[in-house]
Each structure stands twice: as structure tokens, then as C-alpha cells.
Amino acid sequence: MKKKAGTPPAILILTFGIVVLMFFALFTFLTKHEANRAKLQSPDILNSAYAKEAEINFQLSQLMKESLNELSEQLTKTSYLDKLKENFRERQIANLFPELKEIESQFTEQNLQITEDEITLKINIKIDKTAKVKGREVASVLYIYEKEFITPIPKI
């Protein structure tokens, strides 16, 4: 009579070890998923800061051009700054871009230069972006830059 043998113990131990290893890997992946998600969001935060910079630069450039075109009196630093501040308030740019709430204080004669060909305004802008996962801050970007906005003066 032939002896029927069961599964060798080495194969049972190997199978059991593989199952334990799979459950451990799955558990580790599920518990660390939040940290991995935060790492993946980091480039998006930086891209959103750069996109916000482009939007702000466009809005301020348009504001400077419109202020120059609407100026009915002679172009002086004071008259241009008054018109710039007036348009800034009317267009409510600070409401659209919270980063610009404090920028009106930078519309000063020290930051403005007027030549025959162009108007130059130097402004410091701060953009602060944060990413949250389940209400917890996981990444943030603080982007501060100085920009010279140049508007050409049309020849008459």
C-alpha cells in the first residue's frame, strides 16, 4: 500500500509567510497613504503659487495701463498715483486677490519712476499657499517676490 503524504511543512511555512507579508504590506500602504498624498500635492502647491503670480502680474499691469489711459491731466507722480489708487479701489482687486490687501501702501513716489518713455512701479508681493489633508496642514509655500511693472507711455 502506498503511503499518502501531505503537503511538506516547508511549503506551508512559505505560504503562511507570504500571506503575512502581503497583509503587512497592505496595512503599511493604507496607513502611510496620507503622507504619500501630501508628497504628491507639493508640486501642485508650487504650481498654484506661480499661477497666482502670473494672475497678479497681469492684473497690476492692466491696472497701470488703464490708469495711464484714464489720466486727463498732466502726467506727474502724484496725479498718476492718485489715479492708480482710485482704480485699485474701484476694481476691488484686493477682494479678488487677498495677497494684495496690503499692496496699496506700496503705491508711493519712492516706488514710482516716470521717464519720457515709461512708468516703472516696484512692488513686493507675498503669496502664501497651504495644502490640507483631512483638515491638517501637510505642505505650505511662502513665495515673496519683487516685481518692476513697466508701462510704456504712448507718444502723441
Strand order in the sheet with the most strands: 1-2-3
What class would the helix/strand composition place it in? alpha+beta
Distance between the termini: 115 Å
Estimate the global geometry from the Cα principal axes: rod-shaped
The H-and-E topology, N to C, reads as: HHHEEE
Helix content, binned percent: 40-55%
The major sheet is characterized as: 3 strands, antiparallel
Radius of gyration: 30 Å
Mean pLDDT: 82
The protein's oligomeric status is: single chain
SSE layout and pairing:
Elements lengths: L8 H62 L6 H14 L2 H4 L15 E3 L3 E16 L2 E17 L4
Antiparallel strand pairs: 1-2, 2-3
Descriptive account of the structure:
The protein has helices spanning 9-70, 77-90, 93-96; strands spanning 112-114, 118-133, 136-152. The chain is of the alpha+beta class and 156 residues long. It has a domain at 44-152. A three-stranded antiparallel sheet has the order 1-2-3.
Task: Write a brief caption for the model.
This protein is α+β, with helices and mostly antiparallel strands. It has a domain at 44-152.
List keywords for this structure.
single chain, 156 residues, alpha+beta, three-stranded antiparallel beta sheet, 3 helices, 51% helix
